[in-house]
């Protein structure tokens, strides 16, 4: 018999909903970020993919808008324990952005306006698993939630879905990002509860 | 890499801060210590095996195996009503931490410090004030504490006593005490200008509270010329239960 919290019953369980271990359901959209919200004017906004050979592919806001978009509906899992199900986004698949990128790098370091970084394997960005999003719930993405554009990688904890995304650097070696160097897990799979280093 | 272990903490004492918030004084055998500003994960498990977790900021400076958490009861919450109403001294809790290496103040810091707290956002800031006291640090601190009314103050007695090198300013948003010069209202540029530090002093700024509050204060600090990298934020959503 494991640990029991005396007198704790918890909320009535919704048997239809399966959440990753340790998570609870929310219906609003909490905001978490480590510093001030950067404001990026669209006429100066740019997204880049930098390859391991020093080549850079760039997109202006207009160029991003001209690309075919997708409307993924996904579940979000934040390492601070909340999960939000069935969120509706609009954005461009990373498969589309990577179509003309020649690279054999295995690692990606995502960087943001404001200086935030996060790392993940390149394969987690491809095959329909990640998007550069600019609309949430039919509205343009609010700055507090990462607007004008944020990375969306919903199969990993939400800190990997970098807000205010500015670019992706492709690397031959793994380069831990902001939270990854501050004690959080390097990969961050919510279903394996990879919250902190060593989990 | 060593995994952050779950510890079984025992509730030693309860201190009521307000009618809806209480400090849980915990003894945690094997606690590795913490930095001011860090938080812990609390795990509750029901008899049928159902388990859920929440994060809470640590209110105390490192003190052996003793750790204070201050928990605000959220009306329709799942965990905070249990922690603030059901839990009794002698009860046990599962705790993991400390967590978070960014929103922290270290006692060897020499830059002036500005703490801006909204509501229960005071908790990790209080840990910084206590860590400063404990270390005998003379780093100048200024605290701006925004809250609805005087009755919602946490740590009221402790902050009432003068602490050398710490200036405390209360910003009431709804109800002010009799004869209070500042009318009730949300934090403004004038408040941060008067109660904070000039940007030239290059203070470390810690801002903690609800999202709207943190957004407002960090925008004000940026407009005053503070460096974005010197502004560390921690946000409490309306949820968290």
TrEMBL record, chain A:
Pfam families given for it? Oxidored_molyb
> Residue limits of the Oxidoreductase molybdopterin-binding domain?
35-179
* InterPro entries listed in its UniProt record: OxRdtase_Mopterin-bd_dom (IPR000572), OxRdtase_Mopterin-bd_sf (IPR036374)
Q: What is this protein called?
A: Molybdopterin-binding protein
From TrEMBL, chain B:
Classification via Pfam families: FAD_binding_6 (PF00970), NAD_binding_1 (PF00175)
Can the keyword Amino-acid biosynthesis be found in this entry's annotation?
no
Cofactor(s) required, per the database record: FAD
User: Which first-to-last residue range defines the signal peptide?
Assistant: none
Q: In Gene Ontology terms, what is one molecular function of this protein?
A: 2 iron, 2 sulfur cluster binding
Q: Which InterPro entries match?
A: Cbr1-like_FAD-bd_dom, FAD-bd_FR_type, FNR_nucleotide-bd, MRET, OxRdtase_FAD/NAD-bd, Riboflavin_synthase-like_b-brl
The chain positions of domain FAD-binding FR-type read 4-105
Q: What is this protein called?
A: Oxidoreductase
Q: Which SUPFAM superfamilies match?
A: Ferredoxin reductase-like, C-terminal NADP-linked domain, Riboflavin synthase domain-like
Q: Which UniProt keywords apply?
A: 2Fe-2S, Iron, Iron-sulfur, Metal-binding
């Amino acid at each position: 018999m494991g640990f029991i919290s005396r007198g704790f019953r918890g909320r009535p369980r919704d048997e239809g909903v399966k959440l990753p271990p340790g998570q609870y359901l929310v219906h609003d959209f909490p905001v978490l970020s480590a510093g001030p919200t950067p404001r990026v004017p669209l006429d100066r906004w740019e997204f880049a993919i930098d390859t391991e050979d020093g080549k850079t592919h760039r997109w202006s806001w207009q160029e991003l808008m001209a690309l075919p978009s997708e409307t993924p509906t996904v579940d979000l899992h934040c390492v601070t324990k909340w999960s939000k199900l069935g969120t509706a986004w609009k954005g461009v698949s990373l498969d589309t952005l990577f179509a003309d990128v020649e690279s054999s790098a295995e690692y990606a370091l995502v960087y943001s306006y404001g200086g935030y970084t996060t790392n993940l394997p390149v394969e987690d960005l491809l095959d329909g698993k990640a998007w550069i999003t600019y609309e949430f719930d039919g509205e343009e993405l609010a700055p507090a939630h990462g607007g004008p554009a944020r990375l969306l990688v919903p199969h990993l904890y939400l800190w990997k879905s970098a807000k205010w995304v500015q670019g992706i650097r492709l690397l031959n070696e793994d380069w831990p990002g902001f939270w990854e160097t501050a004690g959080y897990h390097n990969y961050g799979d919510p279903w394996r509860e990879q919250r902190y280093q060593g989990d | 890499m060593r995994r952050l272990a779950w510890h079984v903490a025992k509730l030693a004492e309860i201190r009521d801060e307000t009618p809806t918030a209480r400090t849980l004084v915990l003894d945690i055998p094997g606690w590795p210590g913490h930095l001011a500003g860090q938080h812990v994960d609390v795990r509750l498990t029901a008899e049928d095996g159902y388990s859920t977790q929440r994060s809470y900021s640590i209110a105390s400076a490192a003190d052996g195996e003793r750790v204070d958490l201050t928990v605000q009861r959220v009306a329709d919450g799942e965990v905070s009503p249990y922690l603030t109403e059901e839990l009794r001294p002698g009860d046990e809790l599962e705790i993991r931490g400390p967590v978070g290496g960014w929103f922290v103040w270290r006692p060897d810091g020499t830059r002036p410090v500005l703490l801006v707290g909204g509501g229960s956002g005071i908790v990790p800031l209080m840990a910084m004030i206590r860590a400063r006291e404990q270390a005998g640090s003379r780093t100048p601190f200024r605290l701006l504490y925004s809250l609805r009314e005087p009755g919602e103050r946490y740590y009221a007695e402790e902050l009432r006593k003068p602490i050398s090198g710490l200036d405390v300013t209360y910003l009431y948003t709804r109800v002010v005490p009799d004869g209070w010069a500042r009318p009730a209202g949300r934090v403004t540029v004038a408040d941060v200008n008067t109660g904070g530090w000039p940007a030239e002093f290059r203070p470390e700024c810690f801002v903690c509270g609800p999202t709207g509050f943190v957004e407002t204060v960090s925008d004000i600090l940026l407009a005053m010329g503070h460096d974005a990298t010197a502004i560390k934020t921690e946000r409490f959503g309306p949820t968290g239960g």
